[in-house]
Design goal:
single chain; 256 residues; eight-stranded antiparallel beta sheet
């Protein structure tokens, strides 16, 4: 979850870069309803704690369903994301909140049967940048791995202790790449995105050379079946991203 460039770029001379990379195999784009459906066939029949027979098609169908909900003034791309998961301190906003007892995120692709990601950009309503959304649908190779990985999200974005850690850790993480005069503060609160089992909103206040803006980052997750997880990030400036848009994306992915 890369938010540093967005937060720090908000107070620069140019608006934040809205181009998002979603893996190596982009297969569909949309400018709103009516986009062609590229979803592959059904998922087959398997035991409840095993991945679907066609895990890749299942993950793709979930992000395609979310893509199809985008309003006409949004654009989005889906891509096969397996093997492209970034797990360094620069990529994971909650890296400082992990403990030795947590699932090792370095193993997430090894433990996965499929992963597809949607990256989307909305119309610019703030001088600081465009709203952005990313939604990952992942299918793990077994239920134990899915449960262990999802437990990390549950603890960090779904508990008071986890949210307090985010509140303390995010400013320090962003400050490492910020200009020396930058003042960065964060608060963490609940989110109202429908469909999410757990979630938190990080509100990041960045002040550089007397200019201040707030960056809203909603982190939400769902565990729709024994081996599947959905993790989404919604970023906007000055106000939370449209909750109806975010909710529609989550619900569509969960119900696909």
């Amino acid at each position: 979850v890369v938010i540093g460039a967005l937060a720090l770029g908000a107070c620069g001379d140019d608006s934040a870069d809205s181009d998002a990379s979603g893996g190596t195999q982009a297969v569909a784009t949309s400018a709103g309803p009516g986009a062609a459906d590229t979803t592959a066939g059904g998922s087959g029949t398997t035991a409840p704690d095993s991945p679907p027979a066609d895990a890749d098609a299942t993950a793709q169908a979930r992000v395609q369903a979310a893509l199809d909900t985008l309003p006409a003034d949004w654009t989005g791309t889906i891509a096969d994301d397996l093997g492209n998961e970034g797990n360094s301190a620069d990529d994971i906003v909650f890296i400082d909140c992990l403990t030795p007892d947590d699932y090792n995120l370095d193993h997430i692709d090894w433990d996965s049967a499929a992963s597809w990601e949607l990256d989307a950009t909305g119309p610019q309503v703030s001088a600081f940048g465009e709203p952005q959304a990313s939604l990952e649908a992942r299918i793990f190779s077994n239920a134990d791995a899915a449960t262990a990985a999802y437990a990390v999200l549950e603890r960090i974005v779904g508990t008071d202790d986890g949210r307090e850690c985010l509140e303390e850790a995010v400013p320090g993480q962003l400050a490492a790449d910020a200009p020396g005069e930058a003042q960065i503060d964060a608060r963490v609160e609940g989110t109202t995105i429908e469909g999410a089992d757990v979630g938190a909103r990080i509100v990041i206040s960045v002040t550089v050379q007397g200019m201040t803006t707030e960056v809203y980052v909603d982190l939400v997750a769902a565990h729709p079946d024994a081996t599947g997880t959905i993790f989404a990030t919604f970023v906007s400036f000055e106000a939370p991203l449209d909750q109806a848009v975010a909710s529609a994306m989550m619900l569509a992915a969960i119900n696909a």
